[in-house]
């Protein structure tokens, strides 16, 4: 069983490499992802991923079960941006 972790604590320890592993994992297209409402992570190949789903799978790959209390959509974008990921709105405009 995965170790539980709150999003705010995960944000403190994730690295770009951790998120990159989740991107590779999710890019297989074999996963039913929950679509985002406002924003997406823009990947170098032009594809997008929902930020919350990317964070959920990053936690999973790191061996954690993400506790989603206070797991707000806009807040998940902040650590991803700090790690160098591009966040865009649904029209493709950077935020």
Describe this structure in words.
Helix 2 packs across helix 3 (51-61). The mean pLDDT is 92. The chain has helices at residues 7-13, 16-26, 51-61, 73-82, and strands at 3-6, 39-42, 48-49, 64-67, 86-89. The chain has four helices and five strands; from the N terminus they run E-H-H-E-E-H-E-H-E. The protein is an alpha+beta fold and 95 residues long.
Instruction: Assess the beta-strand content as a share of residues.
Output: 15-25%
What is the average per-residue confidence, as pLDDT, rounded to a whole number? 92
**Uncertain spans, ≥5 residues at pLDDT below 50?**
none
Specify the overall morphology.
globular
What would you report as the Rg, rounded to the nearest angstrom?
12 Å
Major sheet size, sense and barrel closure: 3 strands, antiparallel
Give the helix proportion (percent range). Answer: 40-55%
Overall number of strands: 5
The arrangement of helices and strands along the chain is EHHEEHEHE
* Helix count, DSSP H or I runs of 4 or more residues: 4
Based on secondary structure, the structural category is: alpha+beta
Q: Span from first to last CA?
A: 36 Å
- Spatial strand order of the main sheet: 3-2-5
